[in-house]
Design goal:
This protein is α+β, with helices and mostly antiparallel strands. The chain is 48% helix and 14% strand. The strands form four sheets. The chain has a six-stranded mixed β-sheet, with no helix packed on it. A four-stranded mixed β-sheet has the order 5-8-9-12.
Length: 479
């Protein structure tokens, strides 16, 4: 099948009927509902990327699994250094334009490696099943929603010791499949995807074996319910306000599995508790390499918006404190992106064929730029000015009785009209003083795992003993 267009994707939504709720009400037609407009726009833009002459060379890749050209960021299994480098370059560029590049290929790749481990350790036949699933979605151009994070309940207790665990669990084993029950959180864009892929999110013990489960099912499988949180932008059409969040980003969902039957051919893990820890370990490497590039793109967007606001305000970037603040954003972006690329050079090839970056470098780079996001927001407030929190609304500006006053009061640089300044300040408001701001903070701080998980990975993998031994040698201390 040829690479799909955005309209093809929208048409595909008309052929599925998931059980989705938003603001307490059941959604009848996802593709027509105003609260899913940004999500559908965002995903459609991802499909269109493969047809954009500016990005096609990086955005499209040939799959050896399906013998098809496929979109790199959405469904490719990453097996070479070149895969990871092109992904990082593309991720930074797209994230600088619409915050999220939709990198589900990371999720498929880490699952691919984990399932290979299961078969190698236990002699099972899950890996061919997963390859068949990959082939199917690649040929049909279908998207996955990623179900990794369990609710966990009392964080001090493993799932088997929880009084009433809602972590995803096998509740029945049948001749032709299993029945699962439980919840997955943070399933980004899920109501507008085609399939849910579930995986474990942490190390498990033998007592937790029923929680060691992985599978893929269509999102409209009976028993699956999704409670969607609206995207951060307005649900109504606007022309000036929220210029980014009114067009892109999307819903998050709590995905509930209410005694859902999973057929045998769609099961990729069933009780192999000793392999469960591999998934988050691989995730901590591959997805955080992407996240370095993603956060670099966010810093690029903040830097560009800050420079634009300085211009419309009449100061420009020649003013030293403005130039220095923007330079800080740029250096933060380049540091994180450098770690994304550097982690690839010293990575390794997993027995499944998946290429993994150096987790120490990837986690260090991500932790570095994460610590800067609050400063970037602060700098944008400082450079743009207090108006981004207090200025009149678009409705005020469009009121003929009020517009003349706003036109006069908000005039800035003579190089720009008042409306152009108003538009620039609205972008700054969207990034630094809105619900989108909270989403960006959430994306930066907790997406791909919290900052503390970066430290855990680095502490576990960095060879500190080697460094101590070298210091002892230099100091003439017996090793």
């Amino acid at each position: 099948m040829a690479l799909l267009r955005g309209n093809d994707y929208i048409e595909s939504l008309k052929r599925i009927n998931p059980e989705v709720y938003i603001r307490g009400k059941k959604v009848e037609k996802i593709y027509e509902h105003p609260m899913f407009r940004q999500t559908i726009n965002h995903i459609s833009a991802g499909y269109e990327l493969a047809h954009d002459p500016l990005y096609k060379e990086q955005a499209v890749v040939f799959s050896e699994i399906s013998n098809e050209e496929i979109p790199r960021l959405q469904m490719h299994i990453q097996k070479t250094k070149d895969d990871l480098i092109k992904k990082a370059i593309l991720t930074r560029e797209i994230s600088s334009q619409r915050i999220c590049s939709g990198c589900m290929s990371n999720m498929l790749s880490v699952t691919y490696a984990m399932i290979h481990d299961i078969d190698s350790m236990h002699g099972t036949d899950y890996f061919p099943r997963f390859e068949n699933f990959i082939k199917r979605i690649q040929k049909n151009g279908e998207l996955i929603a990623w179900g990794m994070m369990d609710p966990k309940g009392d964080r001090k207790l493993p799932p088997s010791k929880q009084p009433e665990s809602t972590d995803l669990k096998i509740v029945a084993r049948k001749k032709d499949g299993i029945v699962v029950n439980g919840v997955k959180l943070h399933t980004t864009f899920a109501p507008c995807a085609h399939h849910v892929v579930a995986v474990p999110c942490r190390a498990l013990s033998e007592d937790d074996k029923d929680f060691a489960v992985s599978f893929a099912v269509p999102i409209d499988t009976p028993g699956i319910k999704m409670i969607a949180r609206p995207s951060p932008g307005p649900s109504h059409e606007v022309s000036i306000e929220s210029p980014l969040s009114s067009k892109f980003l999307g819903v998050e969902a709590m995905t509930i599995f209410d005694n859902v039957f999973i057929p045998e051919e769609n099961i990729f893990m069933c009780g192999q508790w000793d392999i469960a820890a591999n998934l988050p370990f691989y995730f901590a490497s591959l997805h955080r390499q992407s996240k370095c590039a993603c956060s670099a793109g966010h810093a690029d967007l903040f830097a560009g918006t800050a420079a634009l606001c300085a211009e419309v305000n009449g100061l420009g970037t020649e003013v030293s404190h403005i130039r220095n603040k923007i330079t800080d954003m740029i250096m933060s972006a380049e540091t994180a992106f450098g770690c994304s690329l550097g982690s690839v050079e010293t990575g390794f090839t997993h027995p499944s064929g998946v290429y993994f970056p150096n987790a120490v470098i990837a986690n260090s780079g991500l932790n570095s730029i994460r610590s800067s996001i609050g400063t970037h927001i602060s700098h944008l407030h400082d450079i743009a000015g207090g108006l981004i929190a207090t200025m009149p609304t678009e409705a005020d500006y469009n009121n003929p009785k009020l517009k003349k006053y706003i036109e006069s009061a908000l005039k800035g640089s003579s190089k720009y009209t008042t409306e152009e300044r108003f538009r620039a300040l609205n972008l700054a408001q969207d990034l630094a003083a809105s619900r989108l701001t909270g989403t960006i903070l959430g994306f930066t701080i907790n997406a791909a795992g919290s900052p503390e998980t970066n430290r855990v990975v680095v502490n576990r993998l960095y060879d500190l003993k080697k460094r101590v031994d070298i210091s002892k040698q230099i100091a003439s201390i017996e090793i």
